TrEMBL record, chain B:
InterPro entries: Bact_Chemotaxis_MeTrfase, CheR_C, CheR_MeTrfase, SAM-dependent_MTases_sf. Residues 3-276 form the CheR-type methyltransferase domain. The lineage of its organism: Bacteria, Pseudomonadati, Bacteroidota, Sphingobacteriia, Sphingobacteriales. This is Protein-glutamate O-methyltransferase CheR. PANTHER family: CHEMOTAXIS PROTEIN (PTHR24422:SF8), CHEMOTAXIS PROTEIN METHYLTRANSFERASE (PTHR24422). Keywords: Methyltransferase, Transferase. Signal peptide: none annotated. The keyword Ribosomal protein does not apply.
Length: 188, 277
């Protein structure tokens, strides 16, 4: 078990699921980063998403659990119904306070929290979605010296989320789906 | 106090200062709280009050009554009646048959916030004809939350979502049998309000105060660091009678805590445990 040196965040909502699968499929076998995926999904229904993806991609894909160390070469999914945060000692922390942007987990919450702890070793991707979650988070990633990447609204199934983040961001790269996949192929 | 236009973001170092100050002036120790979550709550309060760090420290030191307000606002009081209907279903079908065997039942809803969990337990006990021999203690760190809990009054908007939860538990009665609605609020029936004693209790510093057959503490431990979690779990262990039950939130596991050797897992995904030694 080694603590992750870098953190890669993926925030997506409606219309982002199949792209996220393609991104995760492209990740090389051994990386010194942890990947954290936040998708808005309903807490009322339990899903086997982590388990089935784990089998499909043949690598550990685990729910982010409270007070557990963030390890490299691991893909984490935020649990539905809880906000996901990162402690200064680089462990996860869950929080069930009010939804943000009608969402829990909220992309803003994990982006801001991860950005503050991992600073320039934090890269955040914001994808398709139907609300404004993530726009504030992208700004906070930039403020702490991290890298922000937004899906090209023309490539997004629902462009509300990427478009609204592009409006408020100062330095985000806007990438096509193909370029996003290429990025994931070259993660170290 | 200065009213700021732009929110000022605090750092983890600023948070340490605030925690230190609270311990010095109010003897409240928040040092075992999850830092990321606590910082968000303090930030939220500062944004709401349009305070900067100097204002906040000044208020803690010099403003009468601010401290109680601070505790109320930084503790998360998000709760629901019959939250996680599956949990209540399991409680009724798996745990209550054990509880039937006790002549008297004492139950602790720890970190009860505004009382919804304690009243849910009370209703569930009534449904299984156990309420007559049960007494429930609801405790919370926030006096404000305890005061709200005592009233047992909830808005109809909330009651509507609680009804959805209730209907998924699989009980015979209707949820509306358990409250009286008036205008846009509902009051929980007298029999339930009389079966619960709400009081102030701080899991960080207070200790065992009774012996219980069932302790529910759901979605509280996530706000504590590992060390404080250990302390609190020990208080629960000491407070449980042998073969008593401990119920944690769906994301709060005993796994990786040493004390788990003293418990048997009753339901792994719902985190229901039984003290066996």
């Amino acid at each position: 078990m080694t603590k992750a040196e870098n953190i890669i965040l993926i925030g997506g909502s409606a219309g982002s699921y199949s792209l996220i699968i393609s991104m995760l499929e492209s990740i090389p076998v051994n990386i010194s980063s942890a990947v954290i995926v936040v998708i808005h999904r309903n807490a009322k229904y339990s899903t086997q998403m982590e388990k089935s993806l784990s089998l499909k991609l043949k690598r550990p894909i685990v729910p982010a659990e409270d007070k557990v160390m963030i390890e490299n070469n691991t893909i984490y999914f935020a649990a539905p119904g809880y906000h996901l945060l990162i402690e200064p000692d680089r462990t996860f922390s869950l929080d069930i306070s009010d939804p943000v942007n009608f969402s829990r987990p909220s992309i803003d919450v994990i982006f801001e929290s991860a950005a503050e702890v991992y600073t320039n070793r934090c890269t955040a991707f914001l994808l398709s979605g139907a609300n404004n979650d993530g726009a504030y988070g992208i700004k906070r990633v930039e403020y702490f010296g991290g890298t922000s990447i937004i899906q090209d609204p023309l490539d997004a199934i629902i462009d509300t989320m990427p478009s609204s983040a592009i409006t408020t961001s100062s330095k985000a790269k806007v990438l096509k789906n193909k370029e996003i996949i290429n990025y994931f192929c070259s993660i170290k | 106090m200065a009213k700021l236009n732009d929110p000022v973001h605090i750092t983890f170092e600023d948070l340490e200062d605030v925690v230190y100050l609270l311990k010095k002036v109010a003897d409240y120790d928040l040092s075992g709280y999850s830092k990321s979550s606590l910082k968000r709550r303090v930030q939220r309060l500062m944004d709401m009050e349009r305070m900067d760090l100097v204002d906040l420290k000044n208020a803690i030191l010099n403003v009468e009554g601010f401290f109680g307000y601070f505790i109320q606002e930084i503790t998360v009081n998000v709760t629901e009646m019959f939250r996680d209907p599956l949990f209540y279903h399991e409680l009724k079908n798996v745990v209550f048959p054990y509880l039937q065997t006790y002549p008297q039942l004492r139950i602790w809803s720890a970190g009860c916030a505004t009382g919804e969990e304690a009243y849910s337990l009370s209703i569930l006990l009534q449904e299984e004809n156990l309420l007559g021999r049960s007494f429930i203690y609801g405790t919370d760190i926030s006096q404000q939350a305890v005061n709200t809990a005592k009233k047992g009054v909830y808005t109809m908007a909330k009651i509507k979502s609680y009804t959805e939860n209730y209907n998924r538990v699989g009980l015979n009665s209707k949820f509306s049998d358990h409250y009286t609605a008036m205008y846009d609020a509902a009051i929980i029936n007298n029999e339930y309000r009389n079966s619960v004693l709400f009081s102030n209790h701080n899991l960080v510093s207070d200790n065992v105060f009774n012996e219980f057959q069932l302790i529910c503490c759901r979605n509280v431990l996530i706000y504590f660091d590992r060390e404080l979690q250990r302390r609190v779990l020990n208080v629960f262990y000491e407070s449980l009678s042998l073969f008593g039950f401990l119920c944690l939130g769906t994301k709060e596991s005993l796994y990786s805590q040493e004390i788990n050797a003293n418990f048997k897992v009753i339901n792994k995904s719902l985190n229901i445990y039984q003290k066996i030694r």
